[in-house]
């Protein structure tokens, strides 16, 4: 484990020297408590959560480094690792939602993006799931979520479009 990943007492008193900021600027423990951070259930270490919480509130890396007694480079590394972990967690949730979605529509490579709304609407009608997107909105959501798997109107890689019971679309690239 890196030093940056080890917890601190998190007193957040902000009194460690000039340029650290006010208590509100560096009270990571307070922010974590306010947002319900639980290190036992989180994919983030406490240090990663502290750094992210402060960075999301606009606190500079150098200020965080001074407060935590480490280097700005170390804070940058911790922040980068935290953001990667958050993205992995989002990807895992999207995967789990796609697995459990009551509507799953396979869109084959080479398909026309303009055909996707009808496929989705038909599958939703059959499953009794309401999708509250117009065809153009649905195409935009699919294209945006698919990234480079869609170019113009062409689906360049197979996709799985899942629709949750709430009508939320989840777009996944199929494994190749």
Automatic annotation (TrEMBL):
GO MF assignments: DNA binding
Basic and acidic residues: bias regions: 1-11
Residues in coiled coil: none
Name the record gives this protein: Transcriptional regulator
SUPFAM superfamilies cross-referenced by the UniProt entry: DNA-binding protein Tfx
Domain DNA binding protein Tfx C-terminal: 89-171
Source taxon at top rank: Archaea
Composition skew (Low complexity), residue ranges: 21-33
InterPro entries to which the protein is assigned, alphabetical: Tfx_C (IPR029291), Tfx_DNA-bd_arc (IPR004645), Tfx_DNA-bd_sf_arc (IPR036657)
Region ranges (Disordered): 1-39
């Amino acid at each position: 484990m890196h030093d940056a990943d080890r917890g601190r007492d998190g007193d957040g008193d902000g009194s460690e020297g000039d340029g650290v900021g006010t208590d509100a600027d560096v009270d990571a423990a307070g922010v974590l408590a306010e947002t319900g951070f639980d290190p036992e259930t989180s994919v983030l270490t406490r240090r990663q959560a502290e750094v992210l919480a402060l960075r999301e509130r606009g606190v500079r890396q150098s200020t965080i480094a001074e407060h935590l007694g480490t280097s700005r480079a170390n804070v940058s590394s911790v922040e980068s690792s935290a953001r990667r972990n958050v993205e992995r967690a989002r990807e895992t949730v999207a995967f789990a939602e796609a697995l459990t979605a009551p509507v799953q529509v396979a869109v084959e490579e080479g398909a026309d993006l303009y055909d996707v709304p009808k496929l989705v609407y038909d599958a939703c009608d059959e499953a009794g799931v309401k999708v509250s997107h117009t065809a153009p909105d649905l195409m935009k959501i699919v294209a945006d979520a698919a990234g480079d798997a869609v170019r113009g109107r062409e689906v360049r890689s197979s996709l799985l479009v899942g629709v949750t019971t709430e009508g939320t679309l989840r777009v996944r690239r199929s494994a190749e």
